[in-house]
Every structure is written in structure tokens, then in C-alpha cells.
Amino acid sequence: xxxxxxxxxxxxxxxxxxxxxxxxxxxxxxxxxxxxxxxxxxxxxxxxxxxxxxxxxxxxxxxxxxxxxxxxxxxxxxxxxxxxxxxxxxxxxxxxxxxxxxxxxxxxxxxxxxxxxxxxxxxxxxxxxxxxxxxxxxxxxxxxxxxxxxxxxxxxxxxxxxxxxxxxxxxxxxxxxxxxxxxxxxxxxxxxxxxxxxxxxxxxxxxxxxxxxxxxxxxxxxxxxxxxxxxxxxxxxxxxxxxxxxxxxxxxxxxxxxxxx
Length: 261
Description:
Elements: H1 15-19, E1 26-30, H2 34-46, E2 51-54, H3 57-65, E3 69-74, H4 83-92, E4 99-102, H5 109-118, E5 122-123, H6 130-140, H7 153-159, H8 164-191, H9 194-211, H10 214-228, H11 232-237, H12 239-260
Parallel strand pairs: 1-2, 1-3, 3-4, 4-5
């Protein structure tokens, strides 16, 4: 994996979002081979990234223009254009905040030079190890580093038995139930109803722990503990952190679920 020395002075895409604790934008995987594309999607999701997918250059450009993609990982030869033409098309309308990575088995020096001239930032040789993929992602689209993870993909994957469709279904169910719980909790806070706060927080904590939403589980546990101590002031003091945890998770779920739709 070689980085373009001309790009070293440019801030890595996604770093500002990561430092602010926001979920990164999705990774757009472009590959005409369904099996290869699915493998890359699964590996990225295991690392905690939301994903988008395309089979050709036209689909890639349409998805990129719709927003939400922070990185494009592309095969060399698509059905309607090659990776160089795709990169030039993206760069023609891009301010440089989308990373483009070429991913194919072998690349000679002349290939890498052609990549950089076309606006491709990096090359990931295939087959690539998870460690190599993780290093590349950390450079170009780092995950948030503030506090607990928004969602632990390993925990969710274990709960879903390794099935991506099951995981997405679980997240959809959680998003719906958590939205209802959040509305109920807001009413409980408005009424200063400590018993209701504790009851709802207990349910939220259990569900959040089940899917690996560590930050939300911690924020809910603070409210639950205040209820058990009959400590309304502490419960009220914990509301802002709970709201921030919910908002962060809502943003992550919206991105991931829209990317998989």
C-alpha cells in the first residue's frame, strides 16, 4: 500500500469528523464482481463502517453525487469505464474531501503513477489482510475516537450470527423501539417522573448492551442508577449526555441503514 506523496499535505478525509466524534461517511465499494464486492462490504462492516455499493462507474458517480460517501474503493476495470476515468470524473466535481482507493491484485510503478495522475489517493493490493485494510481505513477515513464506540460491530455480528441481513433487521427494530423510548423518556423528564425515567432507562440499557451500543448503554445506566437511589437531580443532570448518545447513535443508524437499503 503506497500513499501519494503529493497528498501528504492534505488533511485526511474524515479526520475532522472523527475528531468531533461524528460517524464517518460511508465507504462506496465499486466492483463488477458481486462476490468480490460482497466480501469487501462485509470486511468494511466488520471494521465498523457504513457501506454503499456499485457495479459500474455510472452507479458510482450517481451515488457519489447523492452525498454520504467519504471514500470510494474501486476495481481497475468496470463495465463502462476504468478506475482512472472514474477518478477523473469524481475529481472534476470534487473539492478533495473524498478519498479514492484503487484495489486490484498487482500494481507496477507505472500503474501507481497513473493512479496518482488520475486523482486516486492510494492502492490496496488484493488479496489484502484485514490488518492492511484497517491501516488504510485509519489513514483515509478514520473512525471516531472519542469515548466508547457508537456501536461495536463485533457484538452486533455475534448477535446476528454473522448474517448481515439479520444484523440490519436488528438495527431497524432497535432504531424504531429506541425512538419510541426516547420520546417517552423526554415526557418523563418534563414531568419529573423519576419512576418512569428509571423504567425506560433500564429497557434502553438492556437493548443498547445487546447490540453493542456502549455509549448509549452507559448513559442509560447513569439514569437507572439515579432512579435506584431516588435521586431526581442526578437523573436530570444525566439527560444531556443521554440525548447526545441517542443523537450520535441515531446518526450512525441512519447512515448505515440508508447505505444498506
